Sequence to fold (285 residues):
Amino acid sequence: MISKDQFEKEIDLIITNAVREDIGDGDHSSLACIPANATGKAKLLVKDTGILAGVDFALMVFEKVDPYLKTEVLIKDGSQMNPRDVAFYVEGNSQSILKAERLVLNAMQRMSAIATKTKQFADKLEGTKTKILDTRKTTPGIRALEKWAVKIGGGENHRFGLYDMIMLKDNHIDFAGGVTKAIQKTKEYLRINDLDLKIIVEARDLNEIKEILHSEGVYRILIDNFNYEDTRTAVELINGKCQTESSGGITLETAREYAECGVDYISSGALTHSVHNKDLSLKAI
Fold:
């Protein structure tokens, strides 16, 4: 995963671009009917159930749009939310509140949906050693927000992009001429370019598990689309030599049984690509 500084830069880029995209040369609706010096107050009203996420992001948006806006947080990120809850109040220049409104809502609605889904997986895995991971199956341009939401929901982040970890998947392996060749070429590439990146290798069957284990320096084996029995066998074969991760169509209904096979991680693209936004609104008061 990327560093804290890199992550904060990603968030700042998201806010800067979203404000540019939405405001353009001015919020003409507000400019037309609200005096420049008018002040007001609004509340973030919850209309749904789940895990609230994006409050801290909203505070960053308000600060970026207008550092003179004042906020009062009543419900923190990661808390249970219910209809009619008020997450926070924001007070100050009315035009500034309206400039920030849509970005805050769009982000919080999606982040809360992701955090809620992640919490459901985390609860299913409770009592096992297995952690739930996200993937790169995220919305282009807002990956940092979606991965932040996973953390809020109790999950862990996988690699951020193609640059912060090596993952040798089926196509890499086939193009490279096999598992062993792919690993050897990768280790040589890292040596030549003086890069310190962890290596994850995908296995499609137990024979590939055995072949991967003949190579040194593999950080984690991705046990992809295995059934329960073969997953247990794979974990026994690996026997702690490296980390283990199950993936491939794992659902809330099947996650617990895969965890009980003894894997360290389960990864699920559904955390970010198959959620429905939570219903939140920003209401003037």
Notes: The mean pLDDT is 97. The first strand starts at residue 39 and ends at 46. The two ends are 41 Å apart (CA to CA).
